[in-house]
Amino acid sequence: MKRANSKGPHKTATQCFYCAKRMAVLLCTSLILEFVAPESVFCADDGSADLPALWAAQQAAASAPTDNAMPGIPQMWVAQKAMASPGPENATLAEPPAWGAKKSYIIPAFEIIGWELMLNQFDRHFLACCDYNSNLSTIRQNLHGGWVVDSDGFTVNQLGHPYGGSMYFGFARSSGLGFGESMGYAFAGSALWEIAGEQTPPSKNDQIMTTLGGSFLGESLFRMSNLILENGDGAPSDWREASAAAVSPTVAFNRAAFGDRFHGVFDSHSPEYYSRFQAGGSSTTQNIQGSSTNVQRNEALLDYSLDYGLPGKPGYTYTRPFDYFNFQAIASSADGLESVNTRGLLVGKEYKAGETYRGVWGLYGTYDYFAPQLFRVSSTGLSIGTTGQWGVNSPVQLQGTGLLGAGYTAVGTINDAANSTDNHYGVSPQALLALRFIFGDTVSLDLTAREYFVTSLAGGATDGHDNIVRADASLTWRIYKQQAIALKYLVTRRDETTSALGAMTQSRGTIGIFYTFLGRDRFGAVDWLD
């Protein structure tokens, strides 16, 4: 027997109550799916909500018998999954959106705030220091106070802050945002930490290193992580996912936390690249310690380097920041991370000279950190320069980069015998010349030289100047396929002059032998005549 007024506009209070519950469940479910599965089938092709499809799914779920004729979340989820299952009519919906198609400005903002909250709590409870006991009073004080050049530990300032900046940058970049937008998030994240994360006055040198150094380092890590995911057929394997996560944790986090929304892989445009991994050891040939102590004569080393976007490949363009970049990191048994550095083309243009030369030139961004046991030096800066290759299909080819610019640099002594804080900050003119001579597919000779002249400009309370020179020569001989042996000589020298300490020299030279795994044939030489 049918109830009276079971259809039409006149419904009982109980029926209205069930209708209201249905609409509430429908609304809550749509909100859940927006954040948990924004790529769901309840979206039209342009990413907007497909309300007819959503209503049809709700009606189908509502038709299933329940104790009170009320559709539950499990039924709605089953209906949604049934529609999401691949089939002839919706197979295209199973494909994840292209990278950047569903970018978000809100998600990285909350990620950065959450990251800083966790970091602050960790520092409060596990570090024997009160600097992180910030509160509303210290925040107000930092907002109204001036910015200073702080005297925190060198590794924290010059390595920890840039890596933290790469995390801020990476959260935004892996949410589909561009390079410039992501740098803005790195700047904002750094300012938030300086004002609210610590109770000490905000630091100018930390803001520079976190924003610029973090962005340059972060873009290199982002590109390398996506290059790992991009190489190979079909969906990335678990091994590739794990390798990409090790390079850039922020890319892995967003891929795992937001499903297919950020599962698209950044399009590298298929750059020509050359990677090299080395494992071996070195021994000291020259050692002028200055005020340093506890220097180890021998050390084991792991060295990884990558040239990404080498000039000359037909069809490859340089329209985005870091379409060309170089990255290198060296781990040491003596002091952990011996060096990490990257340089990338921010704005540039291709050029050529006849059939034998191809190159790019423009504005480069650089981040460098070196710690050759005696002292540490770190810099982030901007340079004008060029990268190119001379020779094609010839017995000897030459690749190289030349840069000239300026940066903000810090220098500090390791294990200072005088037990003093010897950190010098300042603006520094700097130059780089890197050359690679390629002899067919058998031998390569790499020569690299850097120089930094650290002034007292913008250096806070420090005075005087430092002149830093680092040079290395590496001869690599390919033995079989991608297996090679390398001999390397490395020298780093510091000449310091201050009113307090006078003139001082520190210098360290090493020679080492390494097993080398070559990532590409012909040592990265590009053939643009094919």
Report on this model:
With 530 residues, the protein is of the alpha+beta class. 31% of the residues lie in helices and 34% in strands. It contains ten helices and twelve strands. The chain has helices at 13-36, 51-62, 73-84, 106-126, 136-144, 154-173, 179-197, 204-230, 238-247, 249-257, and strands spanning 273-288, 298-308, 325-332, 336-353, 357-370, 375-390, 396-413, 423-439, 443-454, 465-480, 483-498, 502-518. Strands 1-2-3-4-5-6-7-8-9-10-11-12 form a twelve-stranded antiparallel β-barrel. Strand 10 (465-480) and strand 11 form a beta hairpin. The longest helix has 27 residues, at 204-230.
Largest sheet: 12 strands, antiparallel, barrel
What is the gyration radius calculated from CA atoms?
28 Å
Q: Count the strands?
A: 12
What would you call the structural class? alpha+beta
Order of helices and strands: HHHHHHHHHHEEEEEEEEEEEE
The count of helical stretches stands at: 10
Short structural summary:
With 530 residues, the protein is α+β, with helices and mostly antiparallel strands. It is built from 10 helices and 12 strands. Helix 4 packs parallel to helix 7, helix 6 packs parallel to helix 10 and helix 8 runs antiparallel to helix 9.
